[in-house]
UniProtKB/TrEMBL annotation:
The Glutamine amidotransferase type-2 domain, residue ranges: 64-162
Catalysed transformations (reactions): L-aspartate + L-glutamine + ATP + H2O = L-asparagine + L-glutamate + AMP + diphosphate + H(+)
Key words of the record: Amino-acid biosynthesis, Asparagine biosynthesis, ATP-binding, Ligase, Nucleotide-binding
Pathway: Amino-acid biosynthesis; L-asparagine biosynthesis; L-asparagine from L-aspartate (L-Gln route): step 1/1
A Pfam family that the UniProt record links to this protein: Asn_synthase
Protein known as: asparagine synthase (glutamine-hydrolyzing)
Domain of life: Bacteria
Residue numbers marked as site, Important for beta-aspartyl-AMP intermediate formation: E358
A GO biological-process term: asparagine biosynthetic process
SUPFAM superfamilies noted in UniProt: Adenine nucleotide alpha hydrolases-like (SSF52402), N-terminal nucleophile aminohydrolases (Ntn hydrolases) (SSF56235)
Length: 582
């Protein structure tokens, strides 16, 4: 698909945005007039992208008994063990991961999902029973979208692929959620008639039955054991996971290295186990802005990596935002989206597989949980209930909805429930409740989809070892006091990797990757942002009042220097809406 969304605007160069097509599946009363059909039965149709040599055959497999057709995206770490369960010699197997799933499903059906370890979004068609199954991995490393109305249900791994089959009406509750969180949590998307399959679940057509084959649960064990014991267990698992996530030993590997504890841990473990060159990639935003290059350089030197540093200018942040939004599914208002794409493009010059440190905060008690813990202690003083406190902790627009949204929009969404409520008010320990929400929603709906889409856009394989399902499960077994206690965060992770990183990294204060959007709007992007947000033709104009937008653009009353973050959130949404117009 190609878009020229800024034609005629002096503030932007002529910008055409192309995204690669993906596979898609149709179920129901499907007509005849579709190009690229790779398989069809009476009520089932598979369309695959074509190449010079034909269809992308690795996206489709048929079981040996011809009963099951499997379509999807999959990467597994335990292929050898699965083949052994089937009685197949690994060296004699000539199929791919999809073919393996087809054989497993034919043998054990739904139960085989409990054995799969990896990342996947699958569609399985039972030709005999005429039943369709939609399946997503436990953590949400891969995405799967489907239309939820009409005579034909369309399914695809990318939301954009479903553009011809969706309405143009926004889901107003999803819009509210985006404004508060910076992403759309749960099964909703910004389009009214498109839904996202939740991690660890199977959706069955024709009866719309949802089955859960995995749930994130608190299972604290060995509370009598000291921190060192839990650290050793975590280290043993990390050693295994990292080795499984590395490419073959004759291929280089890349790592996005911020210099924080999480990415530094992944770097040190990869350097320990990989024989080929390890490339590390760090970013900064120029001389006007503070950076973490001091710490990333220490890690790169300590681990003897081939280190690459990319300066991301304010000009490039703005220039690449339309293309970045085109590669995403739902919009993501995190200012790191553009840097993620640009550093991925740099990494692709050296490697095909890149690892990252995503998952350390939600799994092991990062400092972003501290405001919520404080509120739990002093809620009677702040007069905030846990849900209000959680929404405000995102530091987006949760407190501005009444002023920002037009009255009819606010009326439509103000009493709608939130997807966080069940976990937030569960019986688990308070810290694990927060971490479960962050894993299930921020992880699956922001972090992992961002990693997946933007690394794929750069033709990379992006992998997040700290979000591996086994690491997540183990994190819920570790006593909370070994994750975040007072001001000491990630104690168990620090214990696990203490012998392979310098003390200056393990005990450095957490600062986070701060993208200078406040400076960006004040000094560089204000005019362009006005043109986008205040235009009567803005795609977001039907939903927002202009007064708060004008105040934010003029920085009126910006006591806490948060307007830049809000403006980036709104600009990202506006551009996303424009590049997704039919």
């Amino acid at each position: 698909m190609s878009f020229d969304i800024f034609k005629g605007r002096k503030s932007f160069k002529k910008s055409f945005i192309n995204t690669n097509p993906t596979w898609q599946v149709a179920w129901g009363e499907v007509g005849e007039n579709y190009e690229g059909i790779a398989w069809r039965d009476e009520k089932f149709l598979v369309i695959l992208p074509s190449t010079a040599s034909g269809f992308l055959a690795e996206k489709l497999a048929i079981s040996s008994g011809k009963q099951f057709v499997v379509v999807g995206d999959i990467w597994l770490t335990n292929q050898v063990q699965l083949l052994e369960q089937l009685g197949i010699e690994p060296d004699s197997f000539r199929g791919n991961y999809l073919q393996l799933v087809a054989e497993l499903w034919e043998r054990w059906g739904f139960e085989c999902l409990k054995q799969l370890v990896g990342m996947f979004a699958l569609v399985i068609w039972d030709r005999e029973k005429q039943v369709l199954q939609l399946i997503r991995d436990r953590i949400g490393s891969r995405t799967l979208y489907y239309t939820n109305s009409g005579a034909v249900r369309w399914i695809a791994p990318k939301l954009r692929t479903l553009s011809p089959y969706r309405s143009s009406d926004l889901d107003l509750v999803a819009l509210r959620d985006y404004l508060c969180c910076g992403f759309v949590p749960g099964e909703r998307t910004l389009w009214q008639n498109v839904r996202e399959l939740r991690p660890g679940t199977v959706l069955q057509f024709p009866n719309d039955k949802v089955q859960t084959y995995w749930q994130l649960q608190e299972q604290i064990t060995a509370i009598e054991q000291p921190l060192a014991w839990h650290g050793d267990r975590l280290r043993e698992l990390l050693n295994q996971v990292i080795q499984e996530y590395l490419p073959p030993q004759n291929e280089s590997v890349g790592i996005f290295l911020s210099g924080g504890l999480d990415s530094s841990s992944i770097t040190a473990l990869a350097a320990k186990f990989h024989n080929s060159p390890v490339h590390t990639f760090s970013i900064h935003f120029g001389s006007e802005c503070p950076n973490e290059l001091e710490f990333s350089s220490v890690v790169a030197s300590h681990c003897q990596t081939q280190h690459h540093i990319l300066e991301i200018t304010f000009e490039n942040m703005w220039k690449w935002l339309p293309e970045t939004m085109a590669y995403l599914d739902d919009p993501i208002g995190d200012p790191l989206t553009v840097p993620n794409l640009l550093v991925g493009q740099l990494a692709r010059e050296s490697v095909q597989v890149v690892l990252n440190g995503e998952g350390g905060d939600p799994c092991f008690g990062g400092p972003k949980n501290q405001p919520m813990l404080i509120n739990s202690l002093y809620g009677s003083v702040t007069n905030q209930n846990p849900l209000q406190a959680y929404l405000i902790s995102f530091q987006k627009c949760a407190a501005d909805l009444v002023q920002l949204l037009k009255p009819e929009v606010w009326t439509a969404v103000q009493t709608a429930s939130w997807v966080f409520e069940e976990d937030l008010y569960s019986q688990a320990s308070y810290l694990n409740r927060l971490m479960a929400i962050n894993i299930k929603f921020k992880g699956a709906d922001q972090i992992l989809t961002k990693v997946s889409n933007l690394t794929q856009a750069a033709n990379l394989q992006g992998r997040s070892p700290l979000f591996d399902q086994r690491v997540v499960d183990l994190s819920m077994k570790i006593p909370p006091e070994y994750k975040l206690s007072g001001v000491e965060e990630k104690a168990v992770l620090k214990q696990a990797i203490a012998d392979i990183l310098p003390d200056t990294i393990i005990h450095r204060p957490k600062s986070g990757m701060m993208v200078p959007v406040q400076l960006g709007f004040r000094k560089y992007w204000q005019r362009e942002a006005r043109d986008l947000l205040l235009s009567s033709n803005a795609a977001s104009a039907p939903y927002f009042n202009q007064l708060p937008l004008r105040n934010w653009l003029n920085y009126q009353g910006d006591t806490w220097s948060r307007y830049g973050v809000k403006l980036w959130l709104l600009v990202s949404l506006e551009i996303w809406l424009q590049v997704n117009q039919k």
